Amino acid sequence: MRGIVVNGEDLKQYKTDAAIDGTMLLNQCLEALGLVLEFNTKDFLSHQHAIRVGEGCVLIGEKLGLESRVLQKMYYAGLLHDVGKISIDPKLLAKKGKLTDEEFEVIKEHTRQGSRIIATLPGMSELALWIRWHHEWWNGRGYPDKLIQNEIPVEVQILSVMDCFDSLQTPRPDRDRISPEAAYVIIKEGSGSHFNPDILNLVLELIGERTLVPGKSSERFLELKRKYIDLPFTNIDGKHWQVSGISGLYPILRLFARVIDAKHKYTRGHSTRVSILSKLIAEKMGLRPEEFALVEVAGLLHDAGKVSVPVEILDKPGKPSDEEWKLIKGHPGRSLDILSTIPALSDIATLSGAHHEKHDGTGYPGRLKGEEIPLLSQIISVADTYDAITSTRAYRQGQPPEFAYNIIHKELGAQFNSAVGGIFLDIPPKHISALFDIYEVKDI
Known about the structure:
Hypothetical protein af1432, 52% helix
């Protein structure tokens, strides 16, 4: 039995953990993660660097006659090759102008960091190595391990060429996009030094025949994707990912949250704390265990849309302008958009997209009111507000828990559902602090 009923809402409307078909869930999460990692408003709007690298790897691998299971892995290696950049200071990644030698050494660490991050996902050890080595050079002068020629796995040789070719055509803080023609000339000059000449010639051949087109999925790739990639991800070590629900996806969903929070230094750990606190409130309310899982995951992913907000706005020390505030307020809608690319997480998308709605109807993006707001979204709203107030941001220091409690108390019936807020206010601040300490997010 439930200990409390709020708004008379029947939570059976949500999918339970057992009801979610997990056969393609890992694939969908990895693809969405790739999009979030590379989200850049200056890049191709709907077809970004990570996806393009993954597609190119598949096309080249298929031309070389690599096995189907390898092609599937190469696609995801392309999507995730730069995941280690979430451990780099966002301000350094966004620096305009030439990096110093010391700064470049910090950037180079993203290959090691990426391999360590991916190694935390069950069965992904081979992917972790490929990601670690994607900046190794054919002549042995790359990093981090100075591999030379055939010490570099062929999959990594392909990934290295595709990453360089597409990076040149992707706008960066210190330069504009380079044309495909200019990128072609630059990578050709790397034959025998940066790249295996045979692999490079194959890439140039695909470019010449228009099988590999920057910013556009070729018909050949779409055919290969249907045949080899859009299948259950079963050819990896172990049985971990062969799940029937979201509980088995927690490792990658937690990684998703880390990527979201890494957008700027002031939010690192925020999504994890909101998730932990949301679950605690749901438990105190006497909800069902499957609802704990839903609110925990929705809490982890509630800020996915913040990847669409430029870091200079998120890290601005003063009050945002009206135009900047409009961009910030658009993030719940973007969360809904991003998470909706994962069909099995449609309910999670809805819950995350409503976390800034207010009980009195003055919230955003939909100005929902009272019972129109999903109960679990109302729980996330309270948890999000508490952590936002008590955490340091670019424009202010974090406030004491008592300060946050007073604000939430004043907003009962206006911003917050009174019953949900009341349950939260009965939790001692020291209990929350202890829970956050237990699950403290450590950078890998």
